[in-house]
Specification:
The protein is α+β, with helices and mostly antiparallel strands. The chain has a domain of about 100 residues: Winged helix-like DNA-binding domain superfamily/Winged helix DNA-binding domain (Arc Repressor Mutant, subunit A), CATH 1.10.10. Helix content is about 45%, strand content about 10%. The chain has a three-stranded antiparallel β-sheet. It has a three-stranded mixed β-sheet with strand order 5-4-6, with no helix packed on it. Helix 1 packs across helix 2, helix 2 crosses helix 3 and helix 2 packs across helix 4. The N terminus and C terminus are likely disordered.
């Protein structure tokens, strides 16, 4: 059974992809930002921005370069870094640092507030939204006299696939130890 099948039916699902046409609207916002900054909209900036806007995922520079290469676009990493920086400055993208030694970027504009689970084994990032987290935040803020301006919640652990792999590996180890014990090969047994 997949993890999403355990989701609370009362909690609305957050889709990972922006609504149809959203990428074009975001592109218009990016064009306006570049115009205000007196910067040109180059073809490379456009394909980089559209790649991020359409992906609906948290992408590293390498991920974005691979995605664009798969579309037949060849854009240098320095150009990708500079364009992502502009998207962050325009508040259309958010820079994420999960302690992996590189940053990831995700769509920011129009996004519902969400939090992240990060697998410490494979690096998979899973977005989630739970009203109980928002309620807890409001309670703590009120108790401490704070007004919340932003929140960043990252939970680290093993995804279901990596956890299953660890369990399989430990089961295989237990069987091997069990077989050794039944054959008298474990230290302290036998004579």
């Amino acid at each position: 059974m997949s993890p999403s099948s355990h989701a609370d039916p009362a909690v609305p699902r957050v889709t990972t992809r922006p609504p149809h046409g959203c990428a074009l609207l975001l592109m218009d916002l990016f064009r306006s930002y570049l115009h205000q900054q007196r910067l040109p909209l180059t073809r490379q900036r456009e394909v980089i921005a559209m790649g991020l806007f359409e992906s609906g995922e948290q992408l590293s520079v390498d991920d974005l370069a691979d995605l664009l290469r798969g579309r037949g676009e060849h854009v240098g990493k320095a150009t990708i870094y500079r364009t992502l920086s502009l998207l962050v400055q325009a508040e259309l993208a958010r820079e994420l640092d999960f302690g992996e030694g590189f940053k990831r970027y995700e769509l920011q504009a129009g996004e519902a507030r969400h939090d992240h689970f990060i697998c410490t084994s494979c690096g998979q990032v899973t977005r989630f939204v739970r009203s109980v987290v928002d309620e807890f935040q409001a309670t703590i803020a009120a108790e401490l006299g704070y007004t919340v301006q932003s929140r960043r919640l990252e939970i680290y652990g093993l995804c279901s696939e990596c956890r299953a792999a660890v369990e399989r590996a430990s089961s295989a180890g237990a069987v091997t130890t069990g077989e050794a014990a039944s054959s008298g090969q474990v230290r302290g047994e036998g004579g």
